Amino acid sequence: MALACPPAASTQPALPSGSAVFKTVPYVFILPEILCGTWVWILVAATSVSFPLLQGWVMYVSLSSCLISLLLLISYLFGFHKNSENWKVLDSLYHSTTAILYMSAAVLQANATIHSEFGPNSPLYYQLNSAASFFAFITTFLYILHAFSIYYQ
User: Fold this and answer.
1) Domain range enclosing 85
2) Which stretches make up the MARVEL domain (predicted)?
């Protein structure tokens, strides 16, 4: 009697669904990405967007990334992926693209922070912009971690 090898597809780890999303790397990074990105948007909005050209891009990237990441999290929680390998590709492309966009937004936010140091309402806006820059770089780092850790599963 010959022993049959299991099919190659069964050796691939299953994509998480339900609460396993919060326990599995890289999917555990989705909630912190959403929370830190939300802080970026809130902090920039609190500065009354003093530099619309710079901070408009930051707000667009942070808000759209939060919404898309939230939809992705909901998709994983409810198992819409049905364990398809295409979801890994989608997830990887989304997070790597968003990491690049967030890096550009973080740099622009840091530039807005430098410009707000001596502007009107400088102490308050400078502190808000500094906090937004900090969270923008943290969020960028989280998206980079998520994008790269997909390859090492």
Assistant:
1) 28-137
2) 21-153
How far CA 6 is from CA of 2, 9, 153, in Å, comes to: 13, 8, 19
| pTM, to two decimals | 0.86
Please determine, for residue 10, whether its predicted confidence score (pLDDT) is greater than 60.
Answer: no
Which residues, at least 6 apart from 65, have a Cβ–Cβ distance to it below 8 Å? 33, 37, 98, 101, 102, 139, 143
- Sequence-separated (6 or more) residues with CB below 8 Å from residue 6: none
- 44 within 8 A of 62, measured Cβ to Cβ: yes
Instruction: Give domain status of residue 130, yes or no.
Output: yes
The answer to whether residue 5 is domain-embedded is no
Report CA dihedral (64, 68, 74, 79) to the nearest 10 degrees: 180
pLDDT tier, 48 (very low <50, low <70, confident <90, very high otherwise): confident
| Length reported for the chain | 153
Residue 81 C-alpha from the chain's centroid: 19
